[in-house]
Amino acid sequence: MCLKNSSIQTKYSKRVSSPLSLLSVPVAFTGLNQVRIGKKKMRPAEHLILGTVTSVALYPMLGALGSATFLTGSVLVDIDHYLDFIYHNRFTDFSFGNMFRYHGAIEKLLNRPEMLNVEIFHTVEFMLPLYALFYYLQSPVLGALFYGILFHIGLDMVSLLRRGLFFKRCNSITEYLIRRKFMARRGLVPAAVYFDALRIINEKKLGADKWHAKRS
Ligand SMILES: [Zn+2]
User: Fold this and answer.
1) 73 CA distance to ligand 1 centroid (A)?
2) Which of 38, 89, 202, 214 is geometrically suited to a Cys-Cys bond with 93, CB 3.0 to 4.6 A?
3) In this predicted model, what pLDDT tens digit does every residue of 120-160 receive, in sequence order?
4) β partners of residue 17
5) Quick one: angle between helices 79-88 and 191-206, nearest 10?
6) What is the mean pLDDT for each group of 10 consecutive residues in the chain (216 residues)?
């Protein structure tokens, strides 16, 4: 995701190493010095590396099950990007490859004024009940899951902030619905971005005619 603001881009386009890169010797061996939260989107591999290092660091406190759950939460929360893809294609395409192509296409449309994103497992409406459940049941596993997801969301936020895209993603479904309503008054429809991303990947694959016949 990148904004077309040259000053922001210049400011943040430099390579930014992981906070853990301060630990230069061990980090060099783990390859963490290659992890960056900078100009480009946080990729699943970067979430996996940072989640693994953090869960290993938390092992003395969380134990094996807790650490594994923390890591699982910190990586698998992005499954909502897949739900986003199948929702917008009206449950007609379940291909993981196309899901990655779809999100790749969205990356190139992020500067559009109607771009507004919400991912269900990255929202307050998902996290608060999860925390309440953890608190009520006093379940260490649910706690590890909650903090793993929170860790992931924190990394996403840092990445979005660095790329000048923080306000393109809503952290709440309520926020999304309200902002979408205000955008509609200005004639802006966020769904148009998702439709165009699907059109771009499908026109390449099927050709324009077949794609439009499929959608109609
Ligand atoms: Zn994410």
Assistant:
1) 11
2) 89
3) 999 999 999 999 999 999 999 999 999 999 999 999 999 99
4) 36
5) 80
6) 38 37 38 51 90 97 97 96 95 94 94 95 98 97 98 95 94 98 96 95 80 71
How far, in Å, is the centroid of ligand 1 from the Cα of 189? 23
Distance 81 CA to ligand 1 centre (A): 8
State in Å: Cα 216 to ligand 1 middle: 32
* Cα 59 to middle of ligand 1, angstroms: 23
For the chain, the average pLDDT equals 84
- Enumerate the H helices of the chain as residue ranges: 6-12, 24-30, 44-57, 59-76, 79-88, 96-107, 124-137, 140-162, 173-185, 191-206, 208-215
Q: How far is the CA of 156 from the centre of ligand 1 (A)?
A: 6
